[in-house]
Amino acid sequence: MIVLDGSYGEGGGQIVRTAVGLSALLGIPCRIERIRQGRPSPGLKAQHVAGIKVLLKICRGEAEGLRVGSETLTFIPGRLRGGSYRIDVGTAGAIGLVLQTLMPACVGLPSRLILTITGGTDVKWAPTVLYMKEVLLPILYRMGFEAEIQLLKRGYYPKGGGMISFSARGAELQGVDLRERGEVLGIYGVSHASKSLQSRRVAERQREAALSVLRKKRMEAEIKVRYEETPSPGSGIDLWALCEGSILGANSLGERGKRAETVGQEAASSLLRELESGAALDRHMGDQILPFLAIAKGPSVVSVSEPSGHLETNIWVIRHFPQCEPLELQKEKGKWIIKTKG
Fold first, then answer.
1. Could you tell me if 101 and 119 are in contact, meaning their C-beta atoms sit under 8 angstroms apart?
2. CA distances from 184 to 169, 243, 273, 275, 291 (A)
């Protein structure tokens, strides 16, 4: 059994998500101790529990300590299977984090998996559903990963109530070369908000502010405006740059007291920083692609704009699984490079 210290590095839920996802895929039991010990509210959160419960169904596994607030989790996987399942994360628990838990295991599915997940689609400290749909999945598709996301209903903090459909098939992943992003072919995005904010033109103002920032760098973008009925009022903007060799993304969320213009400016400025780095992957993608690089056949090499705390912690977790390819992080010619030997 692999034993991990859940307080290592940035000490967040990423350790749990990566560990149980790889455990289910590889059939190796694991135990995580001192989960999120350095955080204001230690232990498992609702989205961790929700994701692991479904993972247990998919791999016919068992777990001890699977409850909100638990600081120790023992995960014993069985054999993977497909099927159709519903998940309610509860309130605005992040759907993106639930998918992070499940997706590595999907590589080993013997049949199609279909999930309907209810929770938060756009919440702080988590990948948005649009980021996963427009950036993460297209990049993983280059490695052979087959999955689809449909956004059925948007849900903001604190009530959530968003809904997505996720489907995936098993795959044999191949190594990938993502050192160069190439020229920018186009910038796209969605500026979204609750219908209750439509009279204040919140989504339009986010869009206009983002376009203003981009145009100062002589870049145009196609940004759609969308309003939806949501249980809690909220807003945000997702942007992604389609390049010759890759896709990079950025986003920003609205909150009480934060001007719509600030939201748009933040997202556009963040995307520009990612593009100016010259890397093929943005800092968030650099973290999320790691488990897939580690289980792919053949060598991989990717460049990231900068290493996040999540990235370095994820590398540490992956090194505990002997069936995974070791990941090397190094700086070459001003770029951060992640390599596997394959």
1. no
2. 31, 4, 14, 9, 27
Residues with Cβ within 8 Å of 134's Cβ and at least 6 positions away in sequence, in order, are 188, 238, 240, 247, 249
Considering the domain architecture, whether residues 223 and 103 belong to the same structural domain is answered as no
Fill in the amino acid letter for 250: A
- The order of strands in the sheet holding 247-253 is 222-228, 184-194, 235-243, 247-253
Could you give the maximum distance between any two Cα atoms of the chain, in Å? Answer: 57
Q: Are 229 and 152 in contact (CB under 8 A)?
A: no
Residue 146 dihedral angles phi and psi, to the nearest 5°: -110, 110
pTM recorded for the entire structure: 0.95
Q: What per-residue confidence (pLDDT) applies to 7?
A: 92
Q: Is 14 helix (H, G, I), strand (E, B) or coil?
A: helix
What stretch of H or E contains 189?
A: strand 184-194
What are 306's two structure tokens? 């900068």
Domains contained in the chain, number: 2
**Rounded to an integer, what distance in angstroms lies between the CA atom of residue 145 and that of residue 163?**
22
Residue 222, beta-bridge partner list: 188
Q: CA-CA distance, 182 to 199, in Å (whole number)?
A: 40
Same domain, residue pair 106 and 71: yes
Q: Which of 48, 192, 284, 310 is catalytic?
A: 310
For residue 341, the model assigns a pLDDT of 81
* Per-10-residue mean pLDDT, the chain, length 342: 92 92 98 91 90 93 96 97 92 91 96 96 95 98 97 96 97 96 97 98 98 97 98 98 98 97 98 96 95 96 91 94 94 89 76
Indicate if 292 and 264 belong to the same structural domain: no
d(CA 10, CA 214): 33
Structural domain of 287: 2-178+281-340
Integer-rounded Cα radius of gyration of the chain: 19
- Residue 284 designated active-site: no
**Burial status of residue 109 (CB atoms within 10 A of its CB: 0-12, 13-18, 19 or more):** buried
d(CA 61, CA 80): 9
Nearest CA among 294, 341, 336 for reference residue 316: 294
